[in-house]
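ok so i was messing around last nite and threw this chain in just to see what happens. nothing serious, just curious
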Amino acid sequence: QVQLVESGGGLVQAGGSLRLSCAASGRTFSDAAMGWFRQRPGREREFVATITWSIGTTWYANFVKGRFTISRDIAKNMVYLEMSSLTPEDTAIYYCNVDSPTAGRFWGQGTQVTVSS
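result:
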């Protein structure tokens, strides 16, 4: 089992920045990818970014457009999402995710990000 706890959400003005953190505990998997998803009001959950735990390869959703950066700290079992140039369209609950072909998929409880105009 893996437990994921997100933090770092909050209220920020348009154009501002936030750094989300995800603490993983219980177990980590070398074959896993860790990622961030978000759910905007009235919308389905969507992919934001992911990083492979072992090598650090990253992928991003098109809407990120160079504004977000995902990273991980293996020693601390942490995953981060640095977000900049935020717009009101980025308002959402952001979820941390672990996806392992051998162990399955796990989700955190989410952290709210609100961007005011």
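not much to say yet. The CA atoms of residues 20 and 115 lie 14 Å apart.
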